[in-house]
């Protein structure tokens, strides 16, 4: 759906530029930003490789298992429908840990695997309570270290690229709490409405 929206926005913009007589400006803007887009992508690739390598070291050293063990009681309260030692819980913990370190690209495969496991558990065509909760948490941008933003700030010569970490932690606490409150509100509201 999002791809369709982006495609429609691009088509509408190009058609408008053609009728408005500003097609030359659109072409110039597209081609002048291509260099910059490639350079940003390459610089972000370096930072992501660094952090993914660091995550692999942390995983081998047992740090991620330690974090998963630390967050397990909290995650069990958020996802009470999941059995104690189900693989879905491990995938959810891995997804959340990778997101906390700002590694959205590394977190995505774990999130997809978690969703598949949750679908297996629910055995239904509808989204289960746990699936909706996981989606709400991922949408709330659970991040402690925003590596991508730090990389962009470094690329453009920021005097202190990591100065946003404090604001990021505050924002992620607020957004995640809001997501969980809204998730629970609609869950209990629906449950109340479904009662005879």
Q: Classify the secondary structure makeup into a structural class.
A: mainly alpha
Termini Cα gap: 36 Å
Q: Which term fits the overall shape? A: globular
Tell me the total number of β-strands: 0
Give the biggest beta sheet: none
The proportion of strand residues reads: under 5%
The average pLDDT value, as a whole number, equals 81
- As a whole number of angstroms, the C-alpha radius of gyration is 21 Å
Q: Portion of residues in helices?
A: over 70%
Describe the structure.
The protein is mainly alpha-helical. The chain is built from eight helices and no strands. Helix 2 crosses helix 7 (147-155), helix 3 crosses helix 4 (87-100) and helix 6 (129-139) runs antiparallel to helix 8. The longest helix is centred in the first third of the chain and has 39 residues, at 23-61. The radius of gyration is 21 Å and the shape is globular. The relative contact order is 0.08.
